[in-house]
What we know:
The complex is a heterodimer.
Chain A: H1 3-45, H2 47-53, H3 55-69, H4 76-121
Helix pairs in contact in A: 2-3
Chain B: H1 3-43, H2 45-64
Amino acid sequence: MSDTARQDGAEQRPRIGERVDQIGNDAQRLWEDTRAAAEDLGQTVDLRGRLERHPYGTLAVAFGVGYLLGGGLFTPATARVVRLGMKLAALPLVKDELLNLAEAVMDDVVGQGRGARVVSVDGVAPGRDIPPAS
Amino acid sequence: MEAVPEQMNERVRQLQDRVAPQLDQARRDLSDLNHRTVRFIRENPGTCLIGAVAIGYLVGRIASR
């Protein structure tokens, strides 16, 4: 080995050391950033808190995530579940409408019944018109 | 003729007396089960979450076939 090559090697050794230190520092910084990001994400999502407040709901969401990961989104089973969910969601509206309709019919029937009773009090048989006053 | 409604009333009362404690017991059991399940979920959040995701994944795989 020549003298110049030896000198170059001696100069490069500290450079390599610096590089290794730099890489080590970068790796440490990356690790710290990743950990901070994971902590931020954990605080934002607050899985533990959610699980404390809504245990069943959180598990249902986890189940849904797994279902999506399993490729179950565009399947007949999902379509069936969505249809069932829509029907169940529409049920209260339909129930209210039916109740209103039934109330209206009942009011109508009761109103007619009262009218017939008034007629019968006047001495006219129920279901017949009141004779005009002469 | 009035004996029939009275008999029916009596039968309904007997049935109610017989069924009411069982219903009460079932309600207590269900409530206890719910408390235990929620406690288990709160004590083992990671296990439950990973388990739920895994079960969902399996169901999704089965559904996609």
